[in-house]
Amino acid sequence: MDPPRRREVNRAETYKKWVKLHLADITASLASFNEYAHESTFFLNGHPVRWVYVVGTVVAINDEQEKKTVLTIDDGSGQTINAVASRDRIYLKNVPQLLHSTVKAKGQLELLHGAWQMKLMSLEADLSLDDQVKFWKEANQTHDRLATTTSSTSNSSSTTTSATITSKKRKA
């Protein structure tokens, strides 16, 4: 598959927005191109994704490193992601109290040694069940919309078809 053109990527609706996704969509469906690796842009059925928004439970905390804190987030979709908070960019209050709390994490994705992680840009803790259900509905809508449409960034002359999203959706 040929990489999308820069002009088409810049015009795509998902390029400059926070995209609400389940972790299973991230791990199973995102593709990358070398031309866009330096800016952490990945593609979901031809739609460029730079920034993601996930909701889940903090299941582990690695706070022993000097310059960063790593939160492992589980959204119940069968996958987890490490959200890395650089201490010079984001301040996390009461880090030990975040364990087992439900959080809304926003950040930029990166693929490091074959594993997905998120550079944390913002974190909101102690979400209510209503907030979680609202997120699941919105993430399911995003999933359905991006799975059924191919972005104009997809090259129609390519002989390879875009991957179809096949992850499990959460029931709201």
From TrEMBL:
Any Gene Ontology CC annotation: chromosome, telomeric region
Residues annotated as domain CST complex subunit Stn1 N-terminal: 25-152
Pfam family, any one: Stn1
Gene3D superfamilies: Nucleic acid-binding proteins (2.40.50.140)
Compositionally biased intervals (Low complexity): 148-166
Location of region: Disordered: 145-172
Subcellular location, record wording: Chromosome, Telomere
UniProt protein name: CST complex subunit Stn1 N-terminal domain-containing protein
Organism: Dactylellina haptotyla (strain CBS 200.50)
Source species taxonomy: Eukaryota, Fungi, Dikarya, Ascomycota, Pezizomycotina
